[in-house]
Amino acid sequence: MKPVSWYKSLSSSKERRQEGCFLIEGKKAVEQMLAFHRDSVVELLYTEETVSFYTHTDVNVRIISAQNMKSICTSRTPQDIAAVLQIPADTYTSYLPGKKGKNLLLLERVQDPGNVGSLIRTAAALGYNGVIMSDQCADPFSPKAVQSTAGSLLSVWIRRSGGYLDMAAQLKNDGYVLIAADLSGKESLNFNFKNTGPHILALGNEGAGLSGQALTLCDRTVRVDIVESGAESLNVAACGAILMFTCSRKLESHLSIREKG
C-alpha cells in the first residue's frame, strides 16, 4: 500500500512522469472516467464517510480519512472521491497514433493550465480527436489542467513534445490542412472550406500568439472579428472554442455536400 505522500507527489510534473500516473478529483469527473476510460483507472479513493455509496468491484479501492483526502487533493473544497489514472503511453513523445482522426488541435506555448484544460475539454466536446502541444505548454496532467477538463482528458489523444511542428508537418504531408488562429488572419469566420479535408487548428500563446515558424507552416490564417471598443482581444480558450465549433461544423457540412455530390 502506497503512503499518502505518494498521492500528494502526483501534483509534481516530475513525479507524474516518473510514476506514469495522475490524480483526478470529484464525483462527476471520476464517473466520466469510469464510464468511458475504466481500463485507465488504477485506483479509486473514497473517504470513510462515503464509501458505502459506491460499488465498483472491478476497480481497486482504498478508503482514507477525510483529512488525508484533503491533503491529497489540490482543490479548495475537495470532494469525497478521487482516482489515480494511468497517463497514456507516448503522451510526451513525437510519435503520432495510428488512428489520428479528422479534426486536430495544436497548441503552442499556451502556458495557463486552466486554458489548456478548457481547450482539451472543448476539443473533446466538439469531436476533435487529438491535441498536439509544444513542450512549453502547461502540462495537461497538472492538477489545474485536469480539473479544467472536467473528466474529458482521456477523450482525445495528446502529444506534448518539442517536436510538435514536425508532427504538424508530417500531418500536412498526409493531407491535413493547418489553420492558424491569428489576430491579423487573412480570413474571417466566413472562410470557405472548399477543397479542405481533415484539418489542424493551431492556437498560440496567450499574449504573443503563434510563433513565426508556426505561422509559416500554416496553410491558412483565420481571425475572430470582435468589437474592439468592447474588448482588446479574446481569451485563447474562448477563441479556441469559437474556432473549433466553426471549423468542425464547416468541415462536416462540406464533406456532407461533397459526398452527396
Mean pLDDT: 86
Structural class, please? alpha/beta
Euclidean distance between termini CA atoms: 61 Å
Biggest sheet strand line-up: 7-6-5-9-8-10
Task: Please write the string of helix (H) and strand (E) elements.
Answer: HHEHEEHEEHEHEHEEHEH
Q: Please report the first level of CATH classification, the CATH class of the largest domain.
A: Alpha Beta
Summarize the structure.
With 261 residues, the protein is of the alpha/beta class. Helices cover 35% and strands 18% of the residues. Helix 6 (143-149) links the parallel strand 6 (130-133) and strand 7.
What does this structure look like?
35% of the residues lie in helices and 18% in strands. It has 261 residues and is of the alpha/beta class. The protein has a six-stranded parallel beta sheet, sandwiched between helices. It has a four-stranded mixed beta sheet with strand order 1-4-2-3. Helix 5 (113-125) packs parallel to helix 6 (143-149) and helix 5 packs parallel to helix 9 (236-260). The longest helix has 25 residues, at 236-260.
List the helices and strands and how they pair.
Blueprint: H1 4-9, H2 13-19, E1 21-25, H3 27-36, E2 41-47, E3 61-64, H4 66-72, E4 81-86, E5 103-107, H5 113-125, E6 130-133, H6 143-149, E7 157-160, H7 164-173, E8 177-181, E9 199-203, H8 212-217, E10 220-222, H9 236-260
Parallel strand pairs: 2-3, 5-6, 5-9, 6-7, 8-9, 8-10
Antiparallel strand pairs: 1-4, 2-4
Helix pairs in contact: 5-6, 5-9
Features:
alpha/beta; 60s Ribosomal Protein L30, Chain: A; Alpha/beta knot; 2 domains; 9 helices; 35% helix; elongated
